[in-house]
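Deliverable D5.2: sample structural annotation.
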Amino acid sequence: MKKKQNEIPTVNFGLLGEENYITDYVQVHNPKLQRIAKRLRGKTNDQIITAVASYVAKNIKYPLDRHGKPTAATHTKCFKWWNGLYLTDVDFDYGWLFPNQTVASEVKRGICFSSACLCTSLLRIKHVEAFTVLGVVLKTKGKRILGFHAWTETVKTSGEHIVIETTVHPKPAKLVPAKDMYGEALPVTYDPLAWFNEAGYAEDKSKAKKYEAVLNA
């Protein structure tokens, strides 16, 4: 873990608003994901990273609204009990999918968090060091905040840290050295705030407070 490990937070962004530990969103013991991971071959960490990143880029689409614009809103059907069982439609302005939910739908879609957790889960099943990262995207020139984002960070055989951008469908997988993505070497900079996988969670609390203050100003 990149920072001193913190207490694992809980979140309530599930389809039914249920509470989960954030680490629950990296599923290394899920049978469906294990079957997918088994098909992704590679003898070295680098080959496995490429295979996993390519699978996610090829198969997972970012959800669009009825106007064809990217959206984080979720529409789902769920059962509710009230004098019997009935089916109702539920809309959420924002929601997270577990990796097995992301791959289970007929049209495989997931926002940045969902596709990143799928990527991280597959890498962890293959015993490759990886984390889902929560952070901020900045315009490098001027440091203008473009939005909050999630991505996967993994480690090559050489020890080099790599950022996997998981929202590139239908384009090929995008793997960028972390030192470039985090180091203001590109037109857009990713600034990581928190890292987690199935084993633990860490965050940069001072950086998170800084961005919170800017956004609330």
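Annotation notes: The first strand starts at residue 5 and ends at 6. The first helix runs from residue 31 to 39.
The annotation will be released with the project's public dataset once the embargo ends.
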